[in-house]
Amino acid sequence: MTFPSKILLLIPNLGLGGAQRVFHDHSVELANKYAVTEAVFNADGDDLYPSGNPVVSLEVSGGGGAVAKLQNFRRRISGLRRLRERLQPLVVISHLEGADYVNLLSGGPGKTILCVHGSKLHDANIRGPIGWLRKKVLIPALYNRADRIVTVSRDIIPELVEGFGVKREKLLTINNFFEVAQIEAKSQEALSAAEAAVYAAAPVLVTSGRLTLQKNQAPLLDIFAAVLRQQPAKLVFVGDGELRDPLLSHARALGLRVFAAWEEAPLTPDYDVYFLGLQQNPFKYLRPATAFVFPSAWEGFPMALGEAMVCGLPVLSTDCPTGPREMLAPATASPTTPLRRAETGAYGVLLPMLNQPATLVNDQAEWTASLTALLANEHERARLGQLAALRMKDFTRERIFGQWVELIEQVGRE
After folding, report:
1. Alpha carbon distance 414, 407 (integer Å)
2. DSSP track, 4-55
3. Blockwise average pLDDT, block size 10, the chain, 414 residues
4. Please, what are the domains in the chain?
5. Fewest CB atoms within 10 Å of the CB: 96, 121, 324, 391?
């Protein structure tokens, strides 16, 4: 009897986030061929995306001062080393940078693969003395120790090579995958009567994702206010996060009528902006919308954008690093200077980023003009929606995980 090879997957935590969702998807799919064990630094918080595979906690908490952080870092390294020695995995695949360092320094049985989920050069959360240490010391010094580094977007590779000195031969891109049939099925779930009334009242622009610095939703409110001065419309946010209160305050300061699901007001069509919070099935709010808007400042290979495309929505996205251009205009290279005018790609519309103070007024005006033009053009919306859904056939589970299995088997033989 032949037993399946063992795979160890490592991530700092099993909380809420795109990387955690991808980690879950990988764990579920790889379990069809391998004996998969998940490892986390600690079990604080809920496992929001349970896979059914064994989960091992290294039982090392975070927080504390510099000395405590260093002690915890060492404990994580030694804990993972003991786990590797016990499991004897074929490979250890880490997700997110903190897990990468522990994976690289722990040693022990199993080849080392890193999965890089987003831009390192443009991540505004990598700042201060610790950010300098990560960018200037840790990534350049440690990442070349990996046997392979998988990036979820092609445009992360030149960042790692040119910005951090990572060896090109260690890098390859395997995009995130999407459960196309499952998303399509869930998107057919009916809205409540109150929700349907909102969607019937005016064209609906929808965006989904965490309410965070990265997703950069505040300028979208200014753009929507400008659109609203030209025609009726609704703006729907699906998701929650630490910027909830500032975004609500900004919307109300613009004179927009705001509905928030966590407040006690009834849901009616009388509002301009709707914050629906976290939803078990976000897809049912995407499919009936008029268009999807995606204002992110930086990305990896964005799940929210891809899910909207699966739902057949025309999409408008910042040309941010990285992912949207690869998804919407795959035959084109990233421009050497930031996009200043709307660009209709093969599968959607790319627009200027909204985080450059010197050009923000003009960039928002370009967004406003593009949105009002698209809202007035039903034929173009239908065309882009059909093309978006077609594009997502390139990122099915079967296609993407064939690449992962090929990589694991190759690295395991080396």
Report:
1. 11
2. PPEEEEEES---SSHHHHHHHHHHHHHTTTSEEEEEES---S--SS--SS-E
3. 84 84 91 95 79 92 82 95 97 96 95 95 86 90 96 96 95 95 96 98 97 96 98 97 97 98 95 96 98 97 96 98 97 93 98 96 98 98 98 92 94 90
4. 6-177+396-413 (3.40.50.2000), 180-394 (3.40.50.2000)
5. 121
